[in-house]
Design goal:
This protein is mainly alpha-helical. The chain is about 85% helix and about 0% strand. It is built from five helices and no strands. Helix 2 packs antiparallel against helix 5 and helix 4 runs antiparallel to helix 5. About 15% of the residues have low confidence.
């Protein structure tokens, strides 16, 4: 049994509707990479970077203090890292790669530090803090450098 072909007018209408839908979708995505980066930065990225930097700086600052001070600092960084991980990816591939590495370093280091503080294990706390200092902070600095370069290109 043959199925009758759609009338030419219906086929043309379907094609036209498809073309319009695709054009609308593509038109909504017409931001330049620099504009996308500006949008990410302005819609929460800048705030998260500042908060992470403050919390990681605090962990670094209390590195020579006692566990009762180090543990809460690490807990704060761990909580802030979880918030930052919920952000949309940075629309710059290199910056996103550094960002992901920074967040991973903060997560691992802060978790080890907080766990060590709960156990009163000074060597574990020290390893965790060292992870924040050597894995997280340098990658955050690289992330900020990449973002600054991308934002400067937008101007």
């Amino acid at each position: 049994m043959r199925v009758p072909a759609a009338p030419r007018a219906t086929a043309t209408a379907i094609t036209a509707a498809t073309v319009v839908a695709v054009a609308l979708l593509l038109g909504g995505c017409s931001q330049t990479p620099a504009e996308q980066l500006e949008e990410w930065y302005g819609s929460g990225g800048e705030d998260q970077i500042k908060k992470l930097n403050e919390d990681a700086g605090r962990v670094n600052e209390v590195s020579m203090r006692t566990i009762d001070v180090q543990g809460p600092a690490c807990q704060d960084l761990l909580a802030q890292t979880a918030k930052a991980e919920k952000l949309d990816p940075i629309p710059d591939e290199a910056a996103q790669r550094y960002w992901k590495e920074a967040l991973g370093g903060f997560r691992r280091g802060a978790a080890e530090c907080a766990d060590g503080a709960a156990k009163k294990d000074e060597s574990q706390v020290s390893r965790g803090i060292r992870g924040v200092q050597t894995e997280g902070l340098p990658k955050l600095v690289s992330t900020v450098s990449m973002i600054k370069a991308g934002l400067a290109a937008a101007k």
